[in-house]
């Protein structure tokens, strides 16, 4: 990150000062506010350079801001632990040496590079217990597990390369291609973008496993379980037949963090507020607003539609319903991913030209009709 690593050190220094000087019941409010303002400043600076000055942004800055987002997760996770008294850090009459000893685990957790570069989020208590439990006889050696996961990454990247090759040589042309091909082309593009995330998460798992993280000591299975620190598995997530189910499984540790930080603390419109905060946390691009608000609306619609239709289906129709529900989920996810990843108006034009944007719209309209039918 070069000089941009100052972004992370500044956040950590300010957070440590807050932990030492602010009452634990108030530290979360201060930590959350300062950290989000600091992160938002850099997100807006990137947008200013990209869209107003039309300057190329240094890749080191992108990397630093990406890590800053993950650092925000970690700082707010600890601040909530302090607020809820799950973690107790007292510095009252401690000497400077004792204070430093107490701060070392916090600094180690905050700046732990194995999860700072790509996640996933691990709780402070879990991290400290892993460090405290290090013994001369370590957990089973992870090289075999790491190797197998790297093979999975290789297969994912090969699949992504083949898909990119196909999409480049078969560009969708609205004037000469039929509608179904356009929808399939957009779906293929969204799969390419999603595979990047799956590969990234698997590489992060490998890095953490190689360092000894992610092992579940109480596992009763024959083979050691190294999957307890993961953001998601390709087959599990992609098999989701409901958009609400997909939302819970996608980027699992971040989803759990958002649920704890926003959803469980909001008394009014928790779902909308959670996805709105996700827009803020991701960087406030136009595509983020469209993508995450569409996602929120379709999750709400999915819960209502599923609650009304599922009990009325016979066992023979249930499999057909699940299949079409899976297709519906895939197309809605395609809309969300295209909007969030492309970030600008080009994504909206692509979704309108291929009519893929009709899928979330249909779900929202059906949700409204079911609500009206309930009242009348």
Automatic annotation (TrEMBL):
Residues 1-21 form the signal peptide. The chain crosses the membrane at residues 178-197, 279-299, 320-340, 352-370. InterPro entries: LPLAT_7/PORCN-like, MBOAT_fam. Keywords: Acyltransferase, Endoplasmic reticulum, Membrane, Signal, Transferase, Transmembrane, Transmembrane helix. GO terms for biological process: lipid modification. The keyword Kinase does not apply. GO terms for cellular component: endoplasmic reticulum membrane. It is found in: Endoplasmic reticulum membrane. Pfam families: MBOAT. Its main location: endoplasmic reticulum. One of its GO terms (molecular function) is serine O-acyltransferase activity. It is a multi-pass membrane protein. PANTHER family: GHRELIN O-ACYLTRANSFERASE, PORCUPINE. This is Membrane bound O-acyltransferase domain containing 4. It comes from Sparus aurata.
């Amino acid at each position: 990150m070069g000089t941009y690593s100052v972004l992370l050190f500044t956040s950590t220094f300010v957070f440590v000062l807050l932990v030492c000087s602010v009452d634990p019941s108030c530290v979360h409010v201060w930590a959350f506010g300062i950290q989000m303002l600091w992160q938002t400043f850099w997100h807006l600076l990137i947008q200013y350079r990209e869209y107003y000055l039309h300057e190329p942004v240094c890749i080191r800055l992108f990397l630093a801001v990406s890590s800053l987002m993950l650092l925000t997760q970690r700082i707010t996770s600890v601040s909530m632990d302090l607020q809820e008294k799950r973690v107790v850090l007292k510095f009252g009459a401690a000497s400077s040496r004792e204070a430093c000893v107490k701060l070392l685990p916090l600094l180690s957790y905050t700046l732990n590079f194995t999860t700072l570069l790509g996640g996933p989020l691990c709780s402070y208590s879990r991290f400290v217990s892993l460090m405290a439990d290090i013994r001369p006889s370590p957990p089973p050696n992870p090289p075999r597990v790491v190797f197998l996961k790297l093979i999975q990454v290789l297969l994912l990247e090969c699949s992504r390369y083949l898909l990119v090759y196909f999409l480049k040589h078969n560009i969708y042309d609205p004037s000469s291609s039929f509608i179904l091909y356009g929808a399939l082309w957009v779906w293929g593009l969204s799969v390419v973008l999603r595979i990047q995330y799956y590969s990234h998460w698997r590489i992060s798992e490998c890095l953490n496993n190689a360092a000894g993280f992610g092992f579940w000591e109480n596992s009763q299975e024959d083979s050691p379980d190294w999957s307890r620190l993961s953001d998601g598995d390709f087959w599990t997530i992609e098999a989701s037949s409901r958009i609400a189910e997909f939302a819970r499984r996608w980027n699992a540790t971040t989803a759990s963090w958002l649920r704890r930080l926003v959803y469980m603390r909001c008394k009014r419109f928790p779902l909308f507020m959670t996805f709105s905060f996700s827009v803020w946390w991701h960087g406030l691009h136009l595509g983020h607003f469209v993508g995450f608000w569409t996602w929120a609306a379709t999750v709400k619609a999915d819960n209502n539609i599923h609650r009304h239709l599922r009990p009325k289906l016979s066992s023979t129709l249930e499999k057909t319903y699940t299949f079409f529900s899976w297709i519906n989920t895939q197309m809605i996810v395609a809309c969300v991913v295209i909007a969030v990843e492309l970030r600008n108006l080009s994504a909206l034009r692509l979704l309108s030209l291929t009519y893929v944007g009709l899928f979330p719209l249909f779900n929202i309209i059906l949700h409204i009709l079911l609500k009206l039918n309930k009242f009348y």
